[in-house]
Amino acid sequence: MKRSVTVSLCMIVKNEEATLERCLDSVSGLVDEIIIVDTGSTDRTREIALRYTDKVADFTWVNDFAKARNYAFSLATQEYLLWMDADDILLPADAEKFSTLKSALEWNTDAVSMNYNLAFDEHGNVTSSLTRNRLVKRENGFRWIGIVHEYLEVSGKVHRSDISITHGRVHGNSDRNLNIYESRHASGEIFSSRDLFYFANELREHKQWGKAISFYEMFLQQVDSWIEDRINTCGSLSDCYRELGNEQQAKAKALQSFSYDLPRAENCCRLGSLYMLENDFSKAIFWYKMASELTKPLDNYAILQHACWSWLPHLQLCVCYDRIGQYERASAHNEMAAEHIPFDSKVLANRAYFTGLGVARQTYTLGGTTR
């Protein structure tokens, strides 16, 4: 009988009393060792951690997430290392999958990637997700890289699992990451491509639109930048220009993303939305139809906005066709949206609206000419 691999859970924490217990409850029975590295908690975090493990260590915070995570990895003793944040959990179905994975994992596996579900709608559907390397073989000595928004650099045989880690964020956005970047930039540090990208993201999230644009453009000039980050950057630039009221530049940046790879639904929806602002519904229809016909990429480590790959284009097509008086097509796209979000209030309100207009409830095939 094949022996299960052993796993160390490695975490870095600070002031996580609101979430740590929930996280550890979800995974403690599945791992063989728990390593908690505290970077300076002043609440009950350490007390909670000690209920689950005696391997709680202190680490003096030096504004470098990779250093803290690498220290946590250095304390582990088991065959594989699993990392989670305090506001992550393994839901019961995923816990079962994890247990099965431990029993079946081939010893020549160097890393295991898992889904990371970041956000959900009111019905529990995943709206935003990405893929992260979550479980790595300890003897390979894989290291974390990056002061902020750090990543785990792996190589070799990577097993793509269908296990999902669920992010249950409690803390709101803070200035911590932005302050780290700004301090290092003020000191004259030369940023890597990755740091330029994430610094720009922090600026955008803090609504510093003009400054974000400058750093996004610097990032796009880097020859070693990841193509998915380039595509994401074009979308973020589009959003920044839209916030500044420059719709033409917003369109141009969304279109620029197509120079790096095939069109992505997120940027098609951006273009559709921009044309809707101008009441140019024929062009908006073109871009939303394109978004609705694209196939969601698989094994993609970039963030996916699932609404753009499912119901959102149809709901917007419903609005566009209604505006130009094509009510049957509008109703049809509302029903296509309903296939993904059947109990959504907007879908139900639209259905009632079309019933009031006397439009028969009907659907059309996605490839049909009646769209």
UniProtKB/TrEMBL annotation:
- Indicate the segments forming the Glycosyltransferase 2-like domain, all copies: 8-127
Listed A to Z, the keywords are: Transferase
Q: Which GO terms describe its molecular function?
A: transferase activity
* Record flagged with keyword Transferase: yes
Q: Which domain of life is it from?
A: Bacteria
* PANTHER family in the record: GLYCOSYLTRANSFERASE, POLY-BETA-1,6-N-ACETYL-D-GLUCOSAMINE SYNTHASE
Protein name (database record) = Glycosyl transferase
User: Which organism is the protein's source?
Assistant: Paenibacillus borealis
Q: Mind giving the lineage of the organism this protein is from?
A: Bacteria, Bacillati, Bacillota, Bacilli, Bacillales
